[in-house]
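Methods — Computational structure assignment.
A single polypeptide chain was analysed. Its primary sequence is given first, followed by the predicted tertiary structure written as C-alpha cells.
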Amino acid sequence: MSHSNPSRPTTVHSGIFAGISEDAIAEIFAAAKPRRVAAKQTIITAGEKATHLFVLRKGRGRYFKLSRTGNEVLLQLLTLGDAFGIGTLLENPFPYIGSAQATCEAEMLVWEHARIRQLATLHPQLANNALRIVLQYLKRYVDRHVGLVTKTAEQRLGETLLGLGHKTGRIHPDGVHVEVTNGELGALADISPFTTSRLLSGWQRKGTVTKGRGKVLIHSPEGLVVD
C-alpha cells in the first residue's frame, strides 16, 4: 500500500463519529494516518489479525469473503464514510472477517490498534458507535439470509437496488443514480448474473430503471417493490 499524504479532512460524515463533539472529532482525526490506495488494491485480508481501523473518505470499495473453492461472496459495497476493521477496537483484536479491496483510487483514514483503543477510552461514544455499526452489519446479513430463504429473486433484487439508492444514490433530474455493476447488484441480491440482467431488462422496458455501464438510474422506485 502506498502511504502518501493527502490533505487531512476537516470532516468525514461517518456513523463512527455520531454524537461526538467537534473537539473530540478533531482529536480523533489528528491521530489518523491518511492513506491512498490504487484501484483493485487489497486493503485488508480476511483471517488476518485486525491491526487497523479504516474510514473511507474518497472512492469506493468491496468487502467480500472467498469460499473454500475460491469463489468470491460479496458482503457489501464500501462507500464514503464506511468504517471497517472494527475488530481493532477490541483489547485482543478479532481477525478481519472479510477482505476489502478498492474498486477505484481511494483514500481513507487509518488508526492503529493501540491509538484507537486509547481514543475509545477517552471518548466512549466511539466504542458505542462501533457496536452500533456492527449490529447494523449483523442485521443486514440476517435480513439477507432470511430473504434468500423466503423471497423471490425479483423481490431480493428490487430491495437491494432500493437499499443502494437510499444509501449511496445521487439525485438526478430523472430519478436516483446508483453506481453499481450488474455483477455487484446480483451478488448482493444472491442471484445469478443472467437473472440480474433479465430482471433489469424487464424493469427497463417498463420504464422503472435505465441501465448503463456500471450504473442504474431508478426512475420509479415504487416499480421495484414486488409483492
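Note: The two ends are 46 Å apart (CA to CA).
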